[in-house]
């Protein structure tokens, strides 16, 4: 399987930063590690790959829309001559584009979750919770770093 697909698998299943996982890594890609952790069958891997391919064009289009909307907002905010009345629609467009991307990712995640067994879904939730806890700890550590 191509590295892009394994990366997509990682994002689809858990959005899990595996670098936060306890214990050493044994090589291989994130997707392979997640597939092994969840004990995915070849049929499940193929199904996830097919879903990713199906959704990829839409996700890319939406991601580009988010980037463009954020750039327009950032440009407007940096220009002191931009009136506040023009900033609100820029913000609304950026927020709407981001929300559309979130919904598209959620749809893909729901379809992917439907391919998993109940045990795999529980393990996915457990891994996601662990990763979120690790991320919170790292963020706390970053806040403690004194500014020079």
Notable characteristics:
extended, 148 residues, mainly alpha
Return the string of H and E elements: HHHHH
Counting copies of identical and different chains, the oligomeric state is single chain
What's the gyration radius in Å? 19 Å
What is the percent of helical residues? over 70%
Shape: extended
Number of strands: 0
What's the N-to-C terminus distance? Answer: 46 Å
DSSP strand (E) fraction?
Answer: under 5%
Poorly predicted runs of 5 or more residues: 14-24
Mean pLDDT: 84
Topology (elements, then pairings):
Layout: H1 3-13, H2 30-38, H3 42-78, H4 84-114, H5 118-144
Helix pairs in contact: 1-2, 1-3, 3-4
Summarize the structure in words.
About 7% of the residues have low confidence. Helix 1 packs across helix 3. The protein has 148 residues and is mainly alpha-helical. Helices cover 78% and strands 0% of the residues. The longest helix has 37 residues. It has a domain of 86 residues. The N and C termini lie far apart (46 Å).
Summarize this entry quickly.
This protein is mostly helical and 148 residues long. The chain is built from 5 helices and no strands. The protein has a domain at 1-10 and 41-116.
């Amino acid at each position: 399987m191509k590295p892009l697909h394994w990366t997509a698998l990682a994002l689809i299943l858990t959005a899990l930063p595996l670098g936060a996982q306890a214990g050493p890594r044994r090589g291989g890609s994130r997707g392979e590690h997640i597939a092994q952790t969840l004990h995915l069958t070849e049929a499940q891997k193929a199904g996830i790959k097919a879903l990713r391919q199906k959704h990829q064009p839409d996700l890319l289009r939406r991601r580009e829309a988010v980037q463009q909307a954020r750039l327009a907002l950032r440009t407007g905010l940096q220009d002191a001559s931009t009136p506040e009345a023009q900033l609100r629609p820029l913000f609304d467009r950026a927020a709407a584009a981001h929300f559309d991307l979130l919904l598209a990712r959620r749809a893909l995640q729901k379809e992917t979750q439907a391919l998993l067994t109940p045990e795999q879904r529980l393990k996915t939730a457990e891994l996601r919770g662990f990763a979120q806890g690790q991320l919170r700890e790292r963020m706390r550590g970053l806040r403690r770093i004194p500014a020079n």
